[in-house]
Amino acid sequence: MSKAQNDVVALGARPIPTPERTRRSLLITAAGALIGLIIAGYALFTAKGTSTLSVPAEDVALVNQQPIARADYFTQLKATYQVDYSQATPEQRRKVLDDMIREELFVQRGKELDVAETDPDVRAAMVNSVEQMSASDVATRQPSEQTLLVYYTDHQDRYSTEGIITALDLVFPDSSHAERAAAALGSALGSGSPVATVISNFQGGNSGKLDGEEFYFAAKLHLGDTLFDSARKLPDGGVSKPVQQPDGVHLLYVVANKPPKLRSFDEARTAVLNDFRNDEIKRSTAQYQTFLTRRAGVQIAGDLQQ
Amino acid sequence: MTRLKRPLGLALAGAVILACGVHGLRTIRMESRLLRAAPDTIPANSVLFGFAAGHGASTFRSRCASCHGLSGKGDTTQGVPDLTDSDWLYGTGTVSDIEKVVYYGIRSHNPRGWHLAVMPAFAQPIPSPTEKIPPLTPPGIQAVTEYLLSRGGQPADRALAMEGAAIYASSGGCYDCHTADAKGDSAIGAPNLTDSIWLYGDGSRQAIYDSIAYGRQGICPAWTGRLSAEQMLEVSLYVYSLSHPAADRQQS
Question: What are the start-end ranges of the H helices in B42-186?
Fold first, then answer.
């Protein structure tokens, strides 16, 4: 190359083509094209959803291009024969594979026949399956601690301990007996007299509805709303006002009362996370249903439109 | 020197492309070998295992570490199991058992996931939404707590523990999942209650009481459809490596 030619190249101008350069350019272009074709070819025959000529490594079979995953095959083999793939006999391997191919063939035929139209079990399974898929997406997302804390703050009523009450439900024949017993109960207990003695003096008895320490929900169930409400706010040793009931006049004597207490975020965290996820799943499922309804053409008969 | 620059550059570029190609082909070949191998036999193949566990580590960091921690040691305050010990809640800790959890999860809403066992909340009017189990009374929960403390070799009230044993084996229905000897059932993910490993809390009286009273139901997401088959196998092998150091693997 002369000095003049070198100067031209140095200034960035187009180099003068020579047979040697032309050959090199063609060679590089050809090599690039070949690499491109190899990559495209590989992608074409291995990408998901495309028709492949060979069974991908992660699958054990393709049935009308529908893969049977190797992991599922190994699981099925273990579930059927309680052996690992390496320990299974060729017959066992073949049997499991044949069963899985058979299942896939019948599922595909089921789709062709649209069995969901006729089989209520298939319909129910499909509804459940789509709901579960939507829920599964939500379950994968891990909320931040801040999100959980906000949720906990907004739903504190859910994260209290259950209240515990130990009480006696005393029944008297009429209100005069009950009122006198109520007055006597306080002073008698103060002086150490047994409850049983006091109530028997006023022809009263224990209804037996409560049995030692009980959670609030159980006490409410056993006593009924009215009696429970008159007992729940009483302190330890408190006696309720007489409550008229069909079977007589009741007095509630509270031995011990531990009202519900809010659990701290740390104590309740696992429950918070669980509730948060369940709410998200409900929300997501509702959104999914709205989306499906919007894109569907739903026509309702005139007589049912109201 | 100027004349040599261009051929050298081309040769260098060619070498880089070739190296990338070789690396890519090797990766594809290794992944293919990995996927075709029976999962439980892979740990015996140090080359394949090393390749997979190395790749699995990055997947673990991006997908699993947010709950299990970078070291995989979990967090008992949140009910996240330790993946580095030899105690397995689901299955027996084989690669295929771990892979099943990675694929389909636990209570993940994937129909193939593990979701049979849910610890009921016995201090609720309806302890389990699916099973007909009656609630327990506060003394009943205390008694079962004492029984479990005694089974774990901790100091416990003997009379209450006997009462708790009766509830455990009858109205509480605990035996149904945790088995009659309280050693759990890894086929459904019911933990062993007689050892010193606790999924929730530290095994203290209060922690056990809370588990019985408020219930437990942690989840592990299903990664099928979100990770590729090779990624799921690789991360399973990485998790396996956490509890099986190289020396143990060679021995086995």
Answer: 46-59, 65-68, 95-104, 138-151, 158-168, 174-178
